[in-house]
Amino acid sequence: MTHTPVERASGVPPKPLARRIRGLSDRSIAWIFVAPTILLLLAVNIFPLIWTIRLSFTDYRVNRPNRDVEWVGLANYERILTDPTIWKTMQATAHFLLWTIVLQVVIGFALAFLINKKFRGNDLWTTIIVLPMMLSPAVVGNFWTFLYQPQIGLFNYVVAFFTGADPASFSMIADVNLAPWAIVIADTWMWTPFVMLICLAGLRSIPDSIYEAAECDRASKWRQFWTITVPMALPFLMLAVLFRGIENFKMFDLVVQLTGGGPGNTTTLTSIDLKREAFEKWRTGYSSAYAVILFVTVFGLASIYVKALNKVKER
Amino acid sequence: MSFSVTEPSSRTKWFAGILVIGYALITIAPLLWLIATGFKSPADSIAYPPKVLFQPTLEGYVNLFTDRTRATAAMLEAAGEPQTWYDRIARDQGTVISGPSRYGERFLNSIIIGFGSTALCMVLGTAAAYAFSRFRVPLKDDLLFFILSTRMMPPIAVAIPIFLMFRQLGLNDTHLGMILLYTAVNLSLSVWLLKGFIDEIPIEYEEAALIDGYTRFQAFWKVVLPQAATGIASTAIFCLIFAWNEYAFAVLLTSGTAQTAPPFIPTIIGVGGKDWPAVAAGATIFLVPVMVFTILLRKHLLRGITFGAVRK
């Protein structure tokens, strides 16, 4: 069944798409197109998640498959929530999250603000700044352990050059006080460009006319910055914080290669701790409960945050 | 000459330029150091103060791609003249090459798994994105959110059951298993990104094709796909980069046959300590494709990393 241009021009309303085609209806095509994706995601994401929840109520251990599995109810959850070392891990994660977000937002926004001044060659320099975040975090983390070596490492040498300290006198990854900063610095190096790109999109979305109007009202540059630039870019900033927050909450590869969670447990973030419980101590049931708690935490925090984000957007 | 109040003065531009270039130089320094270290001799790589000028050598690359055994002076004498330039480099270190290292194998695995999962992801993702963009799918918004939410899960949290499931199915440490896994990981990105790209193609093109007697499939194949080609290409590169860089699943679920390069590079060790030039050489080879793609992709970068949530 075909329509000629004459029919189209004659004012007859076009029939619904589904009835114009031969063979399959739109509805069945839609299902054929969507089904494989949904099925794969159910198999590789939802099914394992449900399995994790089920395992979290048992004392199952992967390395002892022949042992009888006992249903232990909420005992795993109880043990985790009363374990002081888990709270230490949570603290380390919170510390990491707080400082990486603060540093990345401040530096990223500043960079975006400067790049938005449209100086010559800014595209080239933006591309260079963006490079680190496209690289493999594990490989980058591994190489940063070389940069952080006392004496031979570039990082120590540069710090010593500017402060006059002895480059052999401090080790970023072996010192209990410095190691948390070592991971914050590497993460900031890698992910500041991400915040910068989002801020740049935010700044470019502000129409020039608003500034022109402010200029007519003789508002100072400082005032324009705080009453126009910051509020208009805020939803973008908050989106960047959301993405970075989720990513850093599940941070694993960069930190595992950089410090391996050490020295002591000072840089053991929750993902690293979870990996040890699940794949080194093989406490499968226990670590499943741990995983569920982390998952609920990240989902809970993210959905509260998204509500706040939507409120800011509506203003 | 028109004067715009929003156009920054040349002094402001100059000042902004200096600061941004300063930051860019700090950012690029570790990468340049990595590339330079790959061409240093092991002794130069750990020299103090760190050497900026050095005699370049391919020792690191030879060490990366070969397994070598230490030989006594008498044995080296008996072995005769080295046949190739890499033989000569190994001989200078007092070793003989005993065979290829596993780096080549791991790199090949990265390519197979990266490209395999990207191809599968693009087929499934394009179809689903097209359906979400053009048809009334029941529960469309819920399904789209569900697809996005799969990205929020920490990989370790689902790794245990995936490990058990793969063991049951015989997929542990296989290319197929990793391809399926990375496809699932990347589907959220590709569906969301591609839906954005397809949404931008005017629906009138397809309507015209349908009126000309094309079926839905033909219209999709001959009209929509060519229009979406750029979007599909950049989405594919993002999927490839994510699969290429993935570490957590690779280190937990593979041990030998299907192991990719990211878990392997940190395990490269030399004689008496870490062979940093070899590590740097391995990392450089591994990072170069991504650097090239990043430069090619710079226009689509923002959309790609935010799932299209923010548009430039």
TrEMBL record, chain A:
Intracellular or extracellular location(s): Cell membrane
Keyword Nucleotidyltransferase in record: no
Primary location class: membrane
Annotated TM spans: 29-51, 96-115, 127-147, 178-203, 224-246, 288-306
Topology of the protein relative to the lipid bilayer: Multi-pass membrane protein
Listed InterPro entries: MalF_N, MetI-like, MetI-like_sf, Sugar_ABC_transporter
Domain of life: Bacteria
A Pfam family of this chain: BPD_transp_1
GO biological process: transmembrane transport
Record-level GO cellular component terms: plasma membrane
UniProt keyword list: Membrane, Transmembrane, Transmembrane helix, Transport
Domain (ABC transmembrane type-1): residue spans on this chain: 90-305
Family: Belongs to the binding-protein-dependent transport system permease family.
Protein name per the record: ABC transmembrane type-1 domain-containing protein
TrEMBL record, chain B:
Protein keywords: Cell membrane, Membrane, Transmembrane, Transmembrane helix, Transport
A Gene Ontology term for the protein's cellular component: plasma membrane
Gene3D superfamilies associated with the record: MetI-like
Highest taxon listed in the record's lineage: Bacteria
Segments traversing the membrane: 12-35, 107-131, 143-166, 178-198, 219-244, 276-297
UniProt-listed GO biological process terms: transmembrane transport
Protein name in the entry: ABC transmembrane type-1 domain-containing protein
Membrane topology type: Multi-pass membrane protein
PANTHER family, alphabetized: ABC TRANSPORTER PERMEASE PROTEIN (PTHR32243:SF52), MALTOSE TRANSPORT SYSTEM PERMEASE-RELATED (PTHR32243)
Record localization: Cell membrane
Entry similarity comment: Belongs to the binding-protein-dependent transport system permease family.
InterPro entries: BP-dep_ABC_trans_perm, MetI-like, MetI-like_sf
Originating species: Frigidibacter mobilis
One Pfam short name: BPD_transp_1
Span of domain ABC transmembrane type-1: 107-297
